[in-house]
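Field reference: "sequence" (input) and "structure" (output). Example, Enoyl-CoA hydratase/isomerase family protein:
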Amino acid sequence: MAEGTVVTSREGAVGVIELARPEKFNAINRATFTAMVAAMEAFEAEGSGIRAVLIRAQGRNFCTGGDLVEAQSMEGDSAALAEYLAFMNGALTRLEASPLPVVCACQGLVLAGGLEIALACDVVFAADTARFGDQHVHYGLIPGWGATQRLVHQAGLRRALDLMFSGRWLDAQTAGAWGIVNHVVPADDLAEAAMAYCATLASRSRPGLAAMKALARAAGDLPLDEGLRLETARTVQIMEGPDPAEGIRAFLDRRRPRFGG
């Protein structure tokens, strides 16, 4: 299904959100994130059968950032700019808050807003030829969609400041070493590798994956003892559902589990 700047589809139990402005290097505008949020809501809907989401992009580059023409239209209007930034930030926070695992597949240039999309996803695949960076310093700007926060959490303070101060690009291997990327694969294998990973996630217990994601994302904001209490409570909750019993039966029967979710 086409949604203007985004194309959505499904492959089995995997929902796909595809950035579709290759002629603009997949620059992000409000319409892009509006369609992305709508797609996430549809994928999460009861009975949709979607167990994982893959974000990918058409063309040679994943995304080179926000649409500067759209941003320039708000020059001098602080109220409009604040509302715009709140909306764009909310869209990326929506990815983090989704109970579904969100996987990102990046090729070519992954810059500024493109980097901020990747930082908001749960797992990131990168082509070995991909380049990651923050470009805001070149325009007298600062990141406005979460990079000043997520980049510090994922790469560390000094690395985050270095990347933002310098405006330089990281190769995929360095982005992996910094914790920005999980898997670096040959460029020709990117689409297949990311989809195969998502298909594996789709065979897992949906409530189990959702609980793992929620607990892990809360961990950085909670004292350890509070996080452990929350983990215990969620473990009891999960054990009361049907999937653990099916998983144990499948192990004893030496077969693959058939989770209902």
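The chain has eleven helices and ten strands.
The chain has a mean pLDDT of 94.
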